[in-house]
Design a protein that fits this description.
Blueprint (H helix, E strand, L loop, with lengths): L3 H8 L3 H10 L17 H15 L4 H8 L3 H33 L8 H12 L4 H17 L4 H11 L3 H8 L12 H19 L10 H14 L3 H10 L2 E2 L5 E2 L11
Antiparallel strand pairs: 1-2
Helix pairs in contact: 1-3, 3-4, 6-7, 9-10, 10-12
């Protein structure tokens, strides 16, 4: 007859594990001998080895009992089911690891892969990191607001980068925008934007589709706070009959009022 420590040694587990199996009902506790010790026999060793083998193979302890009590066919079916569950869990963990790896890269937090690719393309054009961060934060809000539209909008943004005017526009964003309100470059940017917007209207492209008014106001306010000269730029465009930034509209000149300087 064996003591608990010898039983554990024969099965390759710890005494603590044996006591835990007793506690959850997987391994019956024998009666104590005349000296007050629990004495285990060969059947207990076999049972403990079976428990340990199943647990070590990844079978949850809650499922070990049913497998030990199952017949050959039931045992095979049970193992197959557990294997499927483990495979699903492995895939879930692999997906989590991939997401964590993307998060470590910095920009994948709350951003679809398509947006990250677009931001990388802007970097390739030499756009300053300060503006990349501004776009990134805007896209995070857009992705949360209309996630089903992001990929289509990004595809349009990629197509727009084939326009020499858009490439020229991003050229202004390579350095810091520490411009004054009377900087002539603001007028140059307004000229470029107007040409781009005219072509967009002629092509029937819609701006900010699916955005509610409150979100549009938030995006516009963010742009005004983050980009020096933005208010002056909008004022120039307003004089030419353009309204808005996130949701651009063509309006008659007599309906446009110049924002205060």
């Amino acid at each position: 007859m064996l003591t608990i420590s010898r039983l554990a040694a024969h099965a390759g587990v710890t005494v603590r594990a044996v006591r835990h199996y007793h506690q959850i009902g997987l391994l019956p506790e024998p009666e104590r001998d005349h000296s007050g010790y629990r004495a285990y026999n060969a059947a207990a060793v076999v049972r403990l080895i079976q428990i340990h083998t199943l647990a070590d193979a990844g079978v949850p302890l809650a499922r070990v009992q049913e497998l030990l009590d199952a017949g050959a066919e039931e045992f095979a079916a049970g193992v197959e089911q557990i294997d499927k569950e483990l495979l699903a869990e492995i895939r879930r963990l692999q997906s989590t690891r991939k997401r964590l790896a993307r998060l470590a890269a910095g920009e994948h937090l709350a951003l679809p892969e398509s947006v990250v690719g677009y931001l990388d393309r802007l970097r390739g054009l030499g756009v300053g990191e300060w503006y990349i961060e501004l776009e990134r934060d805007a896209w995070i809000m857009v992705a949360a607001q209309v996630p089903h539209l992001v990929d289509a909008v990004i595809a349009m943004k990629h197509a727009s980068l084939e326009d020499p005017d858009m490439v020229k526009l991003y050229g202004y964003l390579q350095g810091p925008l520490d411009w004054t309100a009377d900087d002539p470059r603001i007028v140059e940017i307004a000229d470029i934007l107007e040409r781009v917007m005219i072509r967009a209207v002629e092509a029937g492209e819609m701006n900010a589709e699916g955005f509610d008014d409150q979100f549009v106001d938030l995006m516009d306010a963010t742009m005004l706070e983050s980009a020096p000269g933005a208010e002056q730029l909008l004022a120039i465009l307003a004089e030419r009959g353009w309204k808005g930034w996130t949701r651009v509209e063509r309006v008659p000149a007599n309906r446009v009022s110049r924002p205060p300087a």
